[in-house]
Write a structure and sequence with these properties.
Elements (H helix, E strand, L loop, with lengths): L6 H4 L10 E4 L1 H5 L9 H14 L3 E6 L19 H8 L4 H4 L2 E7 L5 H4 L10 E6 L4 H13 L3 E6 L7 H11 L6 E6 L6 H15 L5 E6 L6 H11 L3 E4 L13
Parallel strand pairs: 1-2, 1-8, 2-3, 3-4, 4-5, 5-6, 6-7, 7-8
């Protein structure tokens, strides 16, 4: 047998997609359980584990407003101030660690015009913008601003199971010309079955065709389908998958 045979020739069902990337949102989504009151040691342990495991992106928290989320009631990972992040990760370097750090900014809850400064001055390399359908105009403005500051951006339309297909189509049409690298299917309440993932993936992919955008998947585990639905989206072609350690996350948790 030739030594040049590839693994796909031996086992064609085993393939490697280098474009498939995993985002760990343990601290960000898990923090919804405890008001983001994680210790520095815990966040550092997640950070070190992500690097050791070869995770592509770690979402270290939210970039949300102190006016709405007082520091007296919420931990530092609700705001992701630069000094707090650097206290834990130091002068993080994505190139040497292989890990990009991300924060999520919520439409309507973030002072994004002032809080999201130049990427060259931050340990963050990505901003994910989360929004409801009625907030899409602000979300597109946030994506544009963060992109102009030098960050990779993603668009996370939340609560997709609670809106109509017409509303989804309107959002996709607005996001398509934006600089976001990825449009994420977000099953906020863990309500979706495989057939709905199939339909949504096709709808998202059709709307983003020709834009160069990837389709992402962020699943919740209310029906114990988060892992199965994430795999289904990957099989369909999603190249951006969210997960958390031990499935830690709001409600029933995220994809483990």
């Amino acid at each position: 047998m030739s030594n040049n045979n590839t693994s796909s020739e031996h086992a064609p069902w085993i393939t490697y997609r280098p474009e498939l990337k995993v985002l760990d949102c343990t601290v960000r989504d898990g923090g919804l359980i405890n008001a983001h009151q994680f210790s520095d040691e815990f966040v550092r342990a997640v950070y070190d584990t992500c690097i050791e495991a070869g995770i592509d992106t770690m979402e270290i928290g939210y970039k949300n407003s102190e006016r709405l989320f007082s520091k007296d009631s919420f931990g530092p990972w609700r705001h992701c101030d630069e000094q707090d992040m650097r206290r834990v990760v130091g002068d993080h370097d994505a190139a040497s660690t292989g890990l990009t750090l991300s924060a999520m900014a919520d439409a309507g809850k973030s002072d994004w015009k002032t809080a999201i400064g130049p990427a060259k001055d931050s340990v963050l390399g990505m901003i994910r913008v989360a929004f409801y359908a009625h907030q899409v105009s602000e979300a597109v403005d946030m994506i544009q601003h963060a992109s102009e500051q030098g960050y990779e951006t993603m668009a996370n339309l939340m609560a997709v199971s609670n809106i109509t297909e017409e509303e989804i189509a309107t959002v996709l049409e607005a996001v398509a010309p934006s600089p976001a690298s990825t449009m994420v299917i977000v099953d906020s309440f863990g309500h979706l079955y495989r057939e709905q993932i199939d339909r949504l993936y096709q709808k998202y992919a059709d709307a983003m065709e020709g834009t160069g955008k990837e389709i992402g998947i962020h699943a919740h585990n209310n029906m114990q389908l988060a892992f199965a639905n994430t795999i289904e989206a990957i099989v369909l072609g999603s190249n951006r998958a969210d997960a958390t350690m031990a499935g830690l996350g709001r409600g029933a948790g995220n994809c483990p």
